[in-house]
User: What shape does this take?
Amino acid sequence: MENRELLCIFDLINEAYPSLDILDSLDVWLSGEFEPPVAFIQTQGVSERGNTLTSYKIISDAGIVLHHRKKKLVGGQEVYELISTEPLRQLLRLERYSYRGKIDGLYINIDNTSFRIRSDRKDRTEITFRFEYIAAIPRPVVEKINHFEIEED
Assistant: This one.
């Protein structure tokens, strides 16, 4: 399921920041071998529980790190060019903290009380939130009977 979640968060960031590159490889992110500005995204499952006889509810956490680009000023001083969180916030407020992914069609509900933005580091802004969605329970394939034989006495 994590792949569907990642695709949905990818779509969300792509809609809020269409010109921003998106990175989802933890190894590349940890190695630092990428060129800002870039958004690093990650999801992690928290729990799964039955919802109905045909579906279950999945709760996951999402983490988004917006890496800011360094810019040289006229005097040679380097400053970070901040990426505003406003496009993402506006999109989520407009959608009432729900979002349907474009690639997969997964519909997530974001817990707005868990939505946190940390911008205490100069080179990045970290956004975290919890979300949930409903997934169908896979049904076994049953062979259908298309031909009936009727016996008469």
Observations:
- The chain has a mean pLDDT of 89.
- Residues 2-16 form the longest helix (15 residues).
- The chain has three helices and eight strands.
